[in-house]
Amino acid sequence: MKIISTPLELKEQLKDEKRSIGFVPTMGALHEGHIALIKKAKEQNEFVVVSIFLNPTQFLKGEDLDKYPKKDEADKKICKLCGVDLLFFPQANDIYGSDEVSLLAPKVRGYVLEGESRPSHFNGVLTVVMKLLNIVSPKRAYFGKKDAQQLNLISLMVKQLFMNVEIVAVDTVREKDGLALSSRNVYLSASQRQEALKIPTSLRSATAMVMKGLLDSELIIANMREILYPLDISYVAIVNREFTQVDKVEIGNSIILVEASVGDTRLLDNIWL
Ligand code: AMP
Questions:
Q1: Considering the domain 2-170 in this protein, what is its CATH number?
Q2: What does the alpha-carbon distance between residue 38 and residue 32 come to, in Å, rounded to a whole number?
Q3: Hey, CA dihedral for 258, 259, 261, 265, is it positive or negative?
Q4: Atom of ligand 1 at shortest distance to CA of 30?
Q5: Domain residue spans in the chain?
Q6: Whole-prediction pTM value?
Q7: CB–CB of 53/128 below 8 Å?
Q8: Tell me, which fold does domain 183-272 have in CATH?
Q9: CA of 180 to the centre of ligand 1 (A)
Q10: 54-78 per-position pLDDT tens digit
Q11: Cα(169)–Cα(143) distance, rounded to whole angstroms?
């Protein structure tokens, strides 16, 4: 596995690459969720590039950029074991200069839910994903359904800016007890981890309601809020695949989303119905 840290070197390396390139962008501290993306990329492409870049522009002031878990050596080993062909491992000054051009998230979809509590977050996400896609020029790029709004906005960017890449969505990987894997789970104490299980439990209960034909969003959300109590909830919402809030679940076109904090740790989860 080759490890490259500068965009120019990477572009040079890939400029004559004829094999299909699958690309998995990450912020490191890799876990089984990331590995599922890499495996999917391996299945569907002849050459797999993973990036590990802790993107500063998607963190707001006061968020956990400085304490975000770093596991560089373990991450390199995981990539190698997973058969990654090329690891892109840049530093912030390899990606950003001063007086930067940047992208703006759409005014509606970029500023609801996650974008409401973190107002410039998606500008940073879209800008870095655009830069990474331009550096790697993959045929396909892989993103987790766990970050449903991020996936939706990246798909929208690719469509609206007429970019030549296929965005592939990968199902959320969970621990045996249902907790969605996240690099931030390491912040949780044993008792907080137990509390955090209220999140997947609330989503399972919502799914059970839908299966019984109870489709009313207000009722489902009220039930989920009861289960989540006393977690600090940022939002519980039901949207369609265009990310517009809906009054009724429509099977095949709905996503139920939760963001809640356990202690200082913000956790995201959702279920696609
Ligand atoms: P991150 O390193 O947290 O920025 O995540 C990199 C990619 O992995 C994103 O596309 C995430 O949506 C995806 N991802 C994170 N956690 C999971 C998970 N538990 N299951 C599937 N994909 C995930």
A1: 3.40.50.620
A2: 10
A3: positive
A4: 2
A5: 2-170, 183-272
A6: 0.98
A7: yes
A8: Pantoate--beta-alanine Ligase; Chain: A,domain 2 (3.30.1300)
A9: 10
A10: 999 999 999 999 999 999 999 999 9
A11: 5
